[in-house]
Amino acid sequence: MLATKRCVPCEGHTAPMTEDEITYHLSLVSGWRYISEKRAIAKQFIFKNFAESMRFVNTIANIAEEEGHHPDIYLHDWKYVDITLSTHAINGLSENDFILAAKIDIATSSHS
What we know:
By secondary structure, the protein is α+β, with helices and mostly antiparallel strands.
């Protein structure tokens, strides 16, 4: 299970995931989509109000700090939070992105 794993430092010595690896890992997380031109995965979360959106963003920030792997977070229209994950050091996706996606999905269940 991805959510039980820890992100490991990736300083560019690892090759980005192949299309087959990405497809497999996408099957392990719910609702994430692959954005090939960005070499990233993304998901939108919708909340009831601004305060709930901000609590979620802060929760994600804490998880990202603990894992040492940081997503792009975009809060807009007071209730939409878009998360984009990619491993910048390798200009593509690594298992870290899917580990963080799984942990974000778990965090979502406590904010909905």
